[in-house]
């Protein structure tokens, strides 16, 4: 469990980086060569999610969603230069709280 959050963060930034490579190619008119590291990044994302210690893939993916949302806002600020507003931050806080409930909530029979 101690590697769960760092693994989610790795997965989130790998997914965002991979998807951004496609965004850059299609929306920012960058070279198609952007797709090579983008696809490698998406493969890293998929591999990282399989490293999550969870009994069910669906639970791992559900908890990942909250971390992904927070990471997306960090990306928007750090890479794209647009600072999240208060509504972004409130929404992300709610999502991360939900992810923490999914990850660390007491399970029946546990």
From TrEMBL:
The chain crosses the membrane at residues 7-26, 32-49, 61-78, 90-109. GO terms for cellular component: plasma membrane. Keywords: Cell membrane, Membrane, Transmembrane, Transmembrane helix. Its main location: membrane. It comes from Defluviicoccus vanus. It is found in: Cell membrane. This is YnfA family protein. It is a multi-pass membrane protein. Belongs to the UPF0060 family.
């Amino acid at each position: 469990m101690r590697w769960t959050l760092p693994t989610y963060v790795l997965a989130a930034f790998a997914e965002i980086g991979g998807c951004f490579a496609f965004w850059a190619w299609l929306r920012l008119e960058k070279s198609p060569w952007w797709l090579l590291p983008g696809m490698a990044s998406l493969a890293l994302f998929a591999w990282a999610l399989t490293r999550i210690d969870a009994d069910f893939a669906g639970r791992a993916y559900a908890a990942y969603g909250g971390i992904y949302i927070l990471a997306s806002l960090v990306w928007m600020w750090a890479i794209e230069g647009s600072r999240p507003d208060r509504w972004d931050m409130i929404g992300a806080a709610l999502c991360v709280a939900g992810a923490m409930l999914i990850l660390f909530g007491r399970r029946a029979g546990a």
